[in-house]
Amino acid sequence: MSEFIFNLQKTDGQARRGEITTPRGKIQTPAFMPVGTAGTVKAMQTRDVKATGADIILGNTYHLMLRPTAERVARLGGLHHFMQWDGPILTDSGGFQVMSLSKLRKLTEEGVSFQSHIDGSRHMLTPERSIEIQCLLGADIQMQLDECPPFPITEEASRESLELSIRWAKRSKDAFEKLSKPGQALFGIVQGSVFEDQRKRSAEGLMEIGFPGYSVGGLAVGEGQEQMFRVLDFTTPVLPKDRPRYLMGVGKPPDLVGAVERGIDMFDCVMPTRSGRHGQAFTWDGPINIKNAAYVDDGTPLDADLDCPASRDYSKAYINHLFRAGEYLAATLLSWHNLAFYQELMARMRTAIEEDRFAAFAAEFRARYSAGAASEG
């Protein structure tokens, strides 16, 4: 199989159950993609990430271009071989990290020049260079280079930004068609901040160019969940029904449920592993801080029903002890559990859509999760 294919199998309201076929395997949607920023899902071995149920992981163009460099990864056999992951990999374009991490950033029609946050070296990222890097890495799903504007932003500045991103989308596609291999796919990124007319303009501009998938960018940047959902309410209906929809950088479990409710198929976020490294565990009854004294003598597991050793086989008291003792295993166990929880959440949503009961599932999930979060304080 050398094609990228999206098969929309079932809908329940706006929620969608589907399957993406790539040369490196199938992706069941709605899907959550663990983030492997620098060629690793932090604190995890790839075999354990796969065992949680992840079909695909995300790699980061910005970080990998700086070190060890895309050229070095290519010489060493590509990102899949380099990090020992044989499933699909999606790479972002680097645009968000240039905005959020780099120094002395200068934006022009050509691209964006910036200073590395690591060593101060100067770099130029253009649509063509972003695609070249992603092809050198060997990514199965790639992103156009876009400008990810800050929030809040004026309507005029947002409009200028999205028009630039549309022009960059065309250049990204032209470069992709020259450099990519059969079966690889390039997604366009819908921008426009919180402005309805601009989101529609961005989506229409990208659809004129034509992509096998569409991402919704520029959210989860400070606008809040209510505003994010409002943007999705008017954005997803204008996107093609026969192409996957990817909400970038989102989010907490209630964000995922609400976005699936609004027609999103794919997600990525550092939340499961970042929270795990800092002592937060996600549960059906809301997040808990395992470092709290309440868990010092708690001999129960995080989730006895999850098919994950970190969730099932270790007590809360033990993980609490690991954090208090400063042991590395603490971050691994909690990251592992959180990733397994996220994958189980996606699996339950897929099943609920298949069985035409997604609305009931979402309502039950929200009620239980918010009640537990309130009691945790």
Automatic annotation (TrEMBL):
Keywords: Glycosyltransferase, Queuosine biosynthesis, Transferase, tRNA processing. It catalyses: 7-aminomethyl-7-carbaguanine + guanosine(34) in tRNA = 7-aminomethyl-7-carbaguanosine(34) in tRNA + guanine. GO terms for cellular component: cytosol. InterPro entries: ArchSynthase1/Queuine_TRR, TGT, TGT-like_sf, tRNA_ribo_trans-like. Substrate binds at residues 92-96, 146, 191, 218. One of its GO terms (biological process) is tRNA queuosine(34) biosynthetic process. Residues 14-370 form the tRNA-guanine(15) transglycosylase-like domain. Pathway: tRNA modification; tRNA-queuosine biosynthesis. Gene3D superfamilies: Queuine tRNA-ribosyltransferase-like. Residues 249-255, 273-277 are annotated as: RNA binding. The active site is at residues 92, 268. Coiled coil: none annotated. Its EC number is 2.4.2.29. One of its GO terms (molecular function) is tRNA-guanosine(34) queuine transglycosylase activity. Belongs to the queuine tRNA-ribosyltransferase family. Homodimer. Within each dimer, one monomer is responsible for RNA recognition and catalysis, while the other monomer binds to the replacement base PreQ1. Catalyzes the base-exchange of a guanine (G) residue with the queuine precursor 7-aminomethyl-7-deazaguanine (PreQ1) at position 34 (anticodon wobble position) in tRNAs with GU(N) anticodons (tRNA-Asp, -Asn, -His and -Tyr). Catalysis occurs through a double-displacement mechanism. The nucleophile active site attacks the C1' of nucleotide 34 to detach the guanine base from the RNA, forming a covalent enzyme-RNA intermediate. The proton acceptor active site deprotonates the incoming PreQ1, allowing a nucleophilic attack on the C1' of the ribose to form the product. This is Queuine tRNA-ribosyltransferase.
